[in-house]
Design brief:
The chain has four helices and seven strands. By secondary structure, it is α+β, with helices and mostly antiparallel strands. The strands form two sheets. The protein has a five-stranded mixed beta sheet. A two-stranded antiparallel sheet has the order 1-7.
């Protein structure tokens, strides 16, 4: 996913591709061990500015944080980058965290790091599957039953500290 910048016409150019596990293994310490994503990149070329819209839909494979089964977690990523050509950045223009500088005379733009970053930033913080909604969930039913039973016990358990506090009589 490398674009030839001088060859791009002004306006919007779209690139579609699919990335698999081997794409993510190219990056050091990647949190993604297995995946498949349909990626759409829209590059809007303007004089001295490129607006890059990245959208990715797919799944990544991880162990469920609840039952430890290997599950596929759906991920939807959408991110926008601004690429400004160096030398054309106005003095009063503030650098935004989503604004990248492209050196003047750059002929190729490697989209791989930006696609990778967009997908990784969209990963959920916890790897769980909503087992209550889907009867065909990949989660281990034995582990889920143990967890539900433990939650029920925790709700029913009494705490002696709270019991003492409940017996306090306040005078008006």
């Amino acid at each position: 996913m490398v674009l030839n910048l001088p060859g791009l016409p002004e306006g919007i150019t779209e690139v579609k591709t699919t990335v698999y596990t081997d794409f993510f293994t190219q990056f050091e310490q990647s949190p993604i061990a297995g995946a498949e994503f349909e990626v759409r990149v829209g590059l809007d070329k303007k004089p001295n500015l490129y607006i890059l819209d990245i959208q990715a839909e797919g799944w990544h494979q991880a162990n469920c944080d609840r039952c430890l089964e290997l599950i596929r977690i759906p991920v939807h990523a959408k991110y926008r980058y601004y690429l400004k050509v160096q030398g054309y950045l106005a003095d009063d223009m503030e650098m935004d965290e989503d604004m990248l500088i492209v050196e003047e005379g750059t002929t190729e733009l490697d989209l791989r790091p930006m696609v990778y970053e967009s997908i990784v930033l969209a990963l959920p913080l916890t790897n769980v599957y909503d087992c209550e909604i889907d009867d065909q969930s990949p989660c281990d039913p034995k582990i889920l039953k143990i967890l539900r039973d433990q939650e029920q016990k925790d709700r029913e358990a009494t705490n002696p500290l709270w019991d003492v506090l409940k017996n306090i009589k306040f005078e008006d």
